[in-house]
Amino acid sequence: MTAQPRFVETRTAHRLALGIEPIDAVTGRPSGHPVEAGLPLPGTPPPLPDGLIAPPEAHAPPGGPVVPLDGVGHGRFVLRHNSRRDLWPTPRAAELRILLRDPQRRYVPRLLTVSLWRRRELEDAETAGTPVPVLARTLRPWLLPGSAYPLPRGTTAVRGTVRTPAGAPVPWARLEAVISGTPTVAGRAHGDERGEFLLIVAGLGDAGLNVENLPVIELDVRVRARRPPPSGVPEEAVPRADVPDTPLLRGEIPPPGYVASPPRTLRISVGRLHAEPLPFPFPT
After folding, report:
1. How far apart are CA 223 and CA 77, in angstroms?
2. Please, what is the end-to-end C-alpha distance for the chain in angstroms?
3. Neighbouring residues of 212: CB distance < 8 A, sequence distance ≥ 6
4. Can the keyword Hydrolase be found in this entry's annotation (predicted)?
């Protein structure tokens, strides 16, 4: 996907601090389903960087209360700088935690800790003749399919759960499937708080396989998770970058502290949803 600026600055009094455009990991395009983006509020509002605009009201859908970010256009969100200092208490942090979620469970939530460009940094860069590009203040995080994602007909996919040997759900697992006998990654999945996942298989052509004449394939599926499991959506630190599309934002890099279990081989039919009856075990 070509990185093109989808956010613009129209007034210097409302400089863009951060633009967010969630991407559907199945289609590789902006999400076609409603997504929420907000600042998590565990109890009292966290500090915002100096002069950052955010709506003061908070709401509390499943997953905890958040301050919703301003929406612009279809499925895009922004935070803007201005000169106000009375919106949030001090000290003002240089990072923000951004929660992305879909209450309808079509996508698995992600919690990103984002390093922001302060207003003074933006102004200094402009004065020096090297303004910070809008793309450097834009994130395009990929949201992987959740349990309610509407699968197109003919999709090859695996639906399953990750559990401990005692049968307890393993929340927020990450899964990766490769074509057996090859290094080709055929698909990735993010597990939810219930240990459920939906893994879309989309890399068959990259492995040089003739899908039309291949009714069954074997996948080696590896689970990664944290011991002990996180109490909520695991945080992922997003460093500053010149482009809004990175392996971390695509969900290819597991959060810190994740460890891998031995791979498990599945034999599945091409073009069908495979509902795996046996949970994927992850030792505690």
Report:
1. 32
2. 39
3. none
4. yes
Radius of gyration of the chain (CA): 20
pLDDT, average across residues 12-39: 87
pLDDT score recorded for residue 17: 83
DSSP state of 107: B
In this prediction, residue 89 carries a pLDDT of 34
**If we measure between CA atoms, which residue out of 12, 149, 134, 120 comes closest to residue 76?**
134
Residue 72 tokens read as 């612009």
Backbone angles phi, psi at 178, to 5 degrees: -120, 150
Q: Cα-flanking dihedrals φ and ψ of residue 13, to 5°?
A: -70, -15
> Is there a contact between 58 and 65 (Cβ–Cβ < 8 Å)?
yes
Give ∠ CA 85-91-94 in degrees, rounded to 5: 90
Alpha helices in the chain (DSSP H): 119-127
Contacts of 63 (CB under 8 A, 6+ apart): 99, 101, 103, 109, 233
CA distance linking residue 123 with residue 65, whole number of Å: 33
Q: What is the mean pLDDT of the chain?
A: 83
HSE-up of 162 (CA within 13 Å, CB side)? 31
pLDDT in tens, 47-86: 455 545 444 444 434 457 788 888 887 889 988 776 434 3
CB 119 within 8 A of CB 137: no
Please give the Cα distance from 66 to 106 (Å, whole number).
19
pTM of the model: 0.83
Does a cis peptide bond (omega within 30 degrees of 0) precede residue 255? Answer: no
Nearest partner of 133 among 244, 40, 262, 231, judged by Cα: 244
